[in-house]
Amino acid sequence: MSTRAGSLVFATAFANSLLGGAALSNGLGLWDWTAVALLFGIGGLIVFMLWPYHQYTFRFDPEELLDQYVDGDRPTTMSAMRRALALRIKADMAGNWRIIQRLQVALQIALLFLLLDILAWLLAIAGI
User: Fold this and answer.
1) pTM above 0.90, yes or no
2) Mind listing the pLDDT tens digit for each residue in 29-48?
3) For residue 122, which of 37, 38, 36, 35 has the smallest C-alpha distance?
4) CA 93, CA 85: separation in Å to the nearest integer?
5) How far apart are CA 122 and CA 81, in angstroms?
């Protein structure tokens, strides 16, 4: 997701510098303000996508594993330990998927905003 957000930063900067300069040469109009508002919307979504998330779960603490499965009152069998770890991995995947889905929706909205932003700049250049 970070790579895609970086690509979106580049595309947004390129489109706005290319079209924005031409559109703003004849003053500020409705489409110019619309494009600037969309630019701020894209920026906010990019910040949301790049904000560090510490809620991802995909690692095991070795000390916790030893306490739980080996050093406890009753050591666990290998098959029971594998089953418990597989279930934990599945739960972690489900938790991570919710975060990934939110980031994916933010990326899709930002891409839509980019298209609308380009359209707004083109309409501003055309003087409509």
Assistant:
1) no
2) 899 999 999 999 999 999 99
3) 35
4) 12
5) 61
